[in-house]
Specification:
Layout: H1 3-11, E1 33-39, E2 50-56, H2 57-74, H3 78-84, H4 95-116, H5 121-139, H6 150-156, H7 159-172, E3 177-179, E4 185-187
Antiparallel strand pairs: 1-2, 3-4
Helix pairs in contact: 2-3, 2-4, 4-5, 4-7, 5-6, 5-7
Length: 193
């Protein structure tokens, strides 16, 4: 399973929704400069053009911190939350970057849980997923392959989490607009599935 696609679909926001999961597990990935790959566009399916970029751990951490700051600043504004995570960060390529990604995604899941209502069944499901996601990261020392693991896949695609994310998707549709270039915003249709 492409973890970036799964996580992005679950969040129904652009955090990695178009990225391709690809990281180097060689000794090269343990260096401070690491190579990560992100798809240019589309679903991240095989055969698409990809752009490879080199991102240091510090650059990766800075990008993740910027997203987390946006999540925090969004507060109870659902559209600001969607906007805060609309970037396409690089794929984590080592444990340090995986940790930053997990921290960011946990913040996103908790914010979505709050948007859904922390005391509602949907809100509780997403917040529990955030807790379990963070625990899995900690328990596995943010190891290479964590994001592609069966444990994370099952956690993020469970029935309750899916139902909660569909509720968030429905609610956040009002936030999905694009600039048509003529100064007018137009709605973006997000296909189901």
């Amino acid at each position: 399973m492409n973890i970036r696609r799964a996580l992005g679909i679950l969040a129904i926001v652009a955090l990695g929704a178009t990225g391709a999961a690809c990281s180097s597990k060689s000794d090269e990935s343990k260096k401070k400069d690491t190579t990560t790959t992100a798809a240019n566009s589309g679903s991240g399916d095989a055969g698409e053009d990809e752009t490879t970029t080199t991102v240091t751990d510090d650059e990766f951490a800075s990008a993740m911190q910027e997203i987390r700051s946006g999540i925090k600043a969004a507060g109870s504004d659902e559209c600001k939350l969607v906007e805060a995570v609309s970037s396409n960060p690089p794929t984590p390529a080592n444990p340090a970057q995986t940790k930053e990604f997990v921290l960011t995604y946990v913040a996103l899941l908790n914010a979505i849980g709050d948007q859904l209502g922390a005391d509602t069944e949907n809100g509780k499901a997403v917040k529990e997923a955030a807790t379990q996601f963070q625990k899995a990261g900690e328990d596995n020392d943010y190891a290479d392959g964590l994001l592609e693991s069966e444990e994370i896949s099952k956690l993020m695609t469970g029935e309750k989490v899916n139902a909660a994310m569909m509720a968030f998707s429905t609610s956040s549709q009002k936030c999905m607009t694009t600039d048509s270039g003529d100064g007018a915003d137009t709605e973006t249709t997000i296909p189901e599935g």
